[in-house]
Fold these 2 entries.
Entry 1:
Amino acid sequence: MKLRQIISIAALTGALLWGGVSSQSLLEWNVILISWDGAQRAHLEELREHGVLPNLEALAAAGAALPMEIRGHATDTKAGHAEMLSGYGPQVTGIFSNRYYQAIPEGLTIFERLKARFGQQSSTVAIAGKRSNIIEILENALAEIDLALIRSAHAALNGPVMLRALRSLKDRAFFAFFHFSDPDHAGHTYGENSQEYSEAITLCDLWLGRIVATLQELGIFDKTLIYVTTDHGFDEGRKTHSNAPEIWLVTNDPAVASPEEGIALQGDIVPTILERLGFELGALEPSLPGRSLLKKAVGASRP
Ligand SMILES: [Zn+2]
């Protein structure tokens, strides 16, 4: 594949700046937010117990693995990713479900918040394996994403582009959103209890390992926080996710912990990341409904 095809949707100016910019940045951390689309929590836990998700396990060992829940919107792709990428529910985003939605209002995504605050000192990337569902909610944010590749594609096609994107980012501070559609497709086709569904999740783990290996090779793993989550769960034993609010978060962020009260919610992901990136949460408009999960006292040590 040629690079020209890859950046078909990219904001070209941002992409063209890569490489020539100094590594000076106000961002202390790089952040990669990874979505394993439709990976059911119970199924994931089963696979973890069987020891077939070694790369996810390594993240959890360095940081945390916690159960999460979805509240207040459909358990589907658009509503889940809207909350995962903006921190707001449908009252603010207008995204209730795959069918009842609009684009996330301008300025509310992590991409836009980073660019508004850090400008060209930060790079933003979105590589996703579903086209319409993701593009339709990110339409207003695309101008603030330096490299966007949003297309219907499996991990085998998008994974290598993710690694290439990381190599091009080497000396830049960045926020990247990497989305894998494989578990959702396998669940819809073969069912939640199928071997194919398990294999799709282990494939995501394989690519997580390649992402980590690339970061290590580039010498930036120790300043990159990785948060792996899902947009929604899956109905037990079925080919649907009509009522699947049980999700999860696994991260190498040593400061993340389950909240002292109640279960963590999908809306807690964005406040956690924004606080990590130096935002004062109380100053954000409109105010974020979620809470930061940065609880543990962590010194200067890095994962
Ligand atoms: Zn689905």
Entry 2:
Amino acid sequence: MNRTPIFPPWMDQLIKLLGAGAAVSGLYVVMMINFGASPKTLNAGYMPEQPVPYSHALHVGELGLDCRYCHTTVESAGFAAVPPTETCMNCHGKIAPTSMKLKPVRDSFSTGMPVPWIKVHDLPDFVYFNHSAHVTRGVSCVECHGRIDQMEEVQQVAALSMGWCLECHRNPESRLRPVDKVTDLDWGLERTPEVKATEGRELMKDLGLYDASGQPTVRMTLMTNCSTCHR
Ligand code: HEC
Ligand code: HEC
Ligand code: HEC
Ligand code: HEC
Ligand code: HEC
């Protein structure tokens, strides 16, 4: 638990005090969002240079590999895991075996030292995030990472600020899809806002976020609780 540096005791008091008045706590949340939006953390556009010019546009967009072929843990764990060198060598033992671009991959394979990939997305440690919780509930990679299947180099497209997370947590309806479509990034582009809303309402019921009559459940109110993301 990493609470002390960001939540001084008065903050707990404040949360208790403000919990009662919806209008006031709304204001408080706005304040927090402004805090959360410090320039240090708004990394949209961040695109570090990687040790190997690996292209998602080629491997996913053209060759059609599924995200889970490489990011094997997205459905089962909190983290998404960048693939080990063995995954690349399944193909690159034979494909482009003398390419200079792949030299660091071959070196890694022979020495056993991992390729030093540079992390693109990085939330502060005091935020709890979990991939499987999203991916197994119908939130697609594209909602948070954009069109990775078209990127030559991975770029962070969303702010990953608290306000950005909350925008969806307050109203996820139109951002949900059937679970078996989460890695199809170009699925449903033709869906109108009306279709998204109708289908979304059913998916919300399936998830238990709405009850049978379409009213938000306790589970839904937990999505905006501080302790869901700060534990
Ligand atoms: C052939 C293996 C492979 C496949 C398939 C693949 N990726 Fe990746 N992915 C990688 C590698 C290697 C990296 C690390 C290098 C980089 O950032 O480009 C990476 C990095 C990423 C990152 C950035 C991670 C960070 O550091 O923050 C995201 C996001 C991502 N992939 C999403 C996806 C999505 C979404 C799909 C499916 C549409 C996908 N990947 C399919 C190999 C793969
Ligand atoms: C399913 C097979 C497959 C897997 C798995 C795979 N690749 Fe590839 N990769 C290809 C193919 C096919 C090409 C195109 C080769 C060509 O154009 O000659 C390619 C091309 C490349 C190139 C460009 C090579 C050049 O000289 O232009 C790089 C770099 C690359 N892959 C990196 C990786 C990395 C890193 C991984 C593991 C994260 C990976 N690949 C996993 C099939 C694969
Ligand atoms: C609800 C938003 C969201 C969805 C959906 C999502 N991601 Fe992420 N992803 C993130 C965030 C936030 C991070 C940074 C996590 C951190 O720093 O702790 C991240 C990080 C990553 C990383 C870097 C490794 C890691 O775990 O930190 C990879 C790879 C990745 N995502 C791949 C995927 C793939 C593939 C999918 C779809 C199957 C996906 N993500 C769906 C938000 C999302
Ligand atoms: C596009 C919509 C969307 C975005 C963006 C999003 N989430 Fe979620 N999140 C969801 C949905 C849907 C659930 C599932 C709620 C449920 O089933 O109870 C969820 C659940 C969670 C949970 C609960 C996990 C568990 O099982 O206890 C956490 C924690 C969480 N999100 C953190 C985050 C954080 C942190 C961010 C921003 C970095 C974020 N989310 C961005 C839609 C989203
Ligand atoms: C859906 C997830 C989510 C929920 C719910 C949430 N937060 Fe956050 N919070 C975040 C994320 C993500 C960040 C990191 C923002 C950044 O790095 O810009 C953050 C950052 C913060 C920070 C640090 C601000 C800073 O300057 O870095 C504070 C304080 C905070 N949150 C308080 C709260 C309080 C109080 C609540 C309840 C009213 C709350 N959070 C609810 C996701 C959430």
